[in-house]
Each structure stands twice: as C-alpha cells, then as structure tokens.
Amino acid sequence: MIKLAICDDEETMVSDLKERITGYLMMQSCQFEIDLFQDARSLLQKDTHYDIIFLDIQMNGITGMEAAQKMRKAGKNSFLVFVTISPEYVYDAFEVEASDYILKPISPKRFSRTMDRILHYISEQKNRRLSIQKGSYCKIVRFDDILYCEIINRIIYVHTKNEVIDYYCKIKELEKQLDPCFFRCHRSYLVNLKFVNSCEKGMAHLENSEQIPISRLKQQEFLSAVLLYMKGR
Length: 233
Description:
Blueprint: E1 2-7, H1 11-27, E2 32-37, H2 40-45, E3 52-55, H3 64-73, E4 79-84, H4 90-95, E5 100-103, H5 108-127, E6 129-134, E7 137-142, E8 146-152, E9 155-160, E10 164-168, H6 171-177, E11 182-186, E12 189-192, E13 196-200, E14 203-206, E15 211-213, H7 219-232
Parallel strand pairs: 1-2, 1-3, 3-4, 4-5
Antiparallel strand pairs: 6-7, 8-9, 8-12, 9-10, 11-12, 13-14, 14-15
C-alpha cells in the first residue's frame, strides 16, 4: 500500500493531481490511498506516514517549503515533490532533499518520469527490511532504522532509532539477512555503517553518541569498510 498526500490551496490543482496519480498507479496495479489537504498546517497536524507528498510552495499561512523544513526536522523521510508556478525556489528544494520540482502546468511525461523514479526507490526500500519473529509476534524493521545489532546469551537485540527489539536468532543467520551496510565489527555486534561518525581506540562512535567495540583483528577492515561506504554515499 502506497500512501500519498496532496497539499495545494487550489482545488483545481488538487483535483488534477489526484486524477494523474490515480491513473498512473492504477496502470501500475498498485494499491494506494490519497489524502487531500488545502493548507500545510492541516498536513503537518496529520499523524500519518506518507510515502509521497506533493506540495505547492506558495500557500496561505505556512508555505510548502516551510512545511517541508518542519517535516525534515521531525525526521520524516517521505518523498517530497514540489508542484509550483515559481521556479525561483528550486535551490531551496535541494536543501530539504526534495525528489523533484515540477513546474505548473504539469507535463505528463515529466510527471510519469518522476513517479517511475520514486516507485523504483520505494520498491528498493521495501526489500531492505528485517523481519523479526518472536512467537506469534512479528515486526518489520527498515534497515535504515537499525543502528546496530547485539547478541547476548543467544538473544539478538536490535537497536533501532526508537526502540530495542529482542528475539532468538543466530548472529550468522542475522548477518545473511542484512545488507552490506552492516559490518560484523565484533563477535557480538553488527553495526550499520550509515550511523558511524568516527572510529577511535577500538571503538565505533555512532551518531547517537553510543560506542560499539571493534575487535582488534577487525579494526583495519572496519575502517576500510567505513571509508568505502562514505565514498559511495
């Protein structure tokens, strides 16, 4: 299910975008839901994660750019697409990591290219997830939300941005399920290279100020992996 939002104070543009999105996603045989907003404040107050948000920039009250800045500060990682008559804000769009900046009137080819690219990224993201099972309990965790994994007495502790999830699993099996962004820096730890800020004195320093031990035999290999990851970002 793809969840989308359209935020524009022009009813005709909201209707036009909804029609374009519906037609495109039906052609792709996608399941989807679209929420409509005529002001940015209502969008910001909605406690829903949207995969894709289409935003006008010049709106009464909070502008689309201001709304995008607030969403990024709140840690929301939706794909943002600005749809506007104003070309002068294109550089500001880069600052909030917008996926595209489409000028009105909307070109059908440009719209399709934008949606093709975003759906490709969404598909890749959905494949980058860890399925955790603990009895009848099941949870799906995005790789990008996992800081590191730790094993203590045969129990895996998955440390995410918001919680710690524990379950029974062999660390070698877990290692196979994760992607190359995770490095086995110690017999008891798998760390997500995305969150490594620095390495010093046998410790990996993470963005959240936690420190993960690096075994002596792994230190050079770990440093090389971090540098290679940073170059590829």
